[in-house]
Amino acid sequence: MNPLLSKSDWLNSEDIRPYVYLRPENQISKPGARHRLDWFDKPALTINPLAIAELPFAEHIYFIENAAFGPAQMAMPRWVFYDCAVLPGFVSGFAYRTSKLPAALKKIFPPNLGNSEWTPLSLFIIIPTMHKGEWVAHNLCSVNSILPKEEQFYGLGFLSKAFGLWYANVDQCTGMTQWGSPALKLHSHYGHLEVIGAYAPVHSFAKTVTYRVIVDTHNWEQFYTKEPDLAFLEKFGPTQIKIDPQNEKSMIDLQLKIERDEGPFYLNAGEIAQAGLKDPLSIYRLKSNY
Ligand SMILES: CC(C)(COP(=O)(O)OP(=O)(O)OC[C@H]1O[C@@H](n2cnc3c(N)ncnc32)[C@H](O)[C@@H]1OP(=O)(O)O)[C@@H](O)C(=O)NCCC(=O)NCCS
Q1: Angle (nearest 5°) at CA 182 between 178 and 187
Q2: Which end of the chain is flanked by fewer CB atoms within 10 Å, N or C?
Q3: What number of other Cβ atoms are within 10 A of residue 224's Cβ?
Q4: β-bridge mates for residue 120, sequence order
């Protein structure tokens, strides 16, 4: 294992493997060819979501997703998973060999989900778009959100998305999350994060940030090293604009600036890593646009 990932030593376990849950027609040609990286050296499990025998794997995915998003009233309906994720895109993550599941994990899964050889621990859903080369990150969650701190797998959510981006050779990834979500700490580490929407009244939750990154594995390393991103600081500088996760007006104001083409605007991953979830975040611009 790459020593950089030592905080995620669970990656070394013989009983944990990355998985891709994708229908056979959606096979990726040359997985991992684009981003040169030695993080994912174990062969991925490939699971066919259309096979009836694989239903227990899906039931475990649903259980994790519902537990993670249910409290925020964003649990994914089954038809959304099938129509909008499984058919056009794929799911990736990590899975544990069911026969070796540790007690803490056995305890969280109800017994009526059925049995499969491998039990998913996380899921990242990504869907290709009609804009060539652009994918949409649709969902990310991990069992860490429902495990006690001492039983968690550090980096599970982060690496689930990293693995999916790496596996599918994703160059441009767009996504959305809510301002103030812990997920921003992860999403900002896959490449410099441009805010392409600061307010989304069309969404169930208007306080949603829509972002885009050009995938760059240098930023992945900083998730572990916590070193400042010098390349970002050289290229981008802070503006007077701040987004306060508790203040809808700050989001609407930035959204209107985006609509008036006054951007592009960016978030600083290093600042988000240090900030509390309720803290205001600075908006950055290209220094060349000053
Ligand atoms: C958000 C989520 C995907 C993160 O995955 P994870 O496996 O818990 O997190 P990872 O182990 O990969 O990353 C750990 C980092 O995230 C931070 N983090 C994770 N959950 C956090 C929380 N609730 N509050 C603050 N920080 C949090 C950790 O502090 C850590 O940062 P550090 O390295 O600075 O200490 C996961 O907690 C989850 O499923 N949440 C519920 C669903 C959700 O909100 N999904 C995101 C929607 S876009």
Answers
A1: 80
A2: C
A3: 18
A4: 95
Is the confidence at residue 188, as pLDDT, over 90?
Answer: yes
Kindly tell me if the per-residue pLDDT of 244 is higher than 80. yes
Pocket probe for ligand 1: among 65, 144, 149, the residue whose CB has the most ligand atoms within 8 Å is 144
Closest to 174 measured CA to CA, from 206, 138, 141? 138
| pLDDT tens digit sequence for 31-81 | 999 999 999 999 999 999 999 999 999 999 999 999 999 998 999 999 999
- CA dihedral 66→72→73→77, nearest 10 degrees, is -30
Q: Cβ distance 141 to 71 under 8 Å?
A: no
Eight-class DSSP state of 151: G
CA of 158 to the centre of ligand 1 (A): 8
Q: What are the residues facing 119 on neighbouring strands?
A: 96
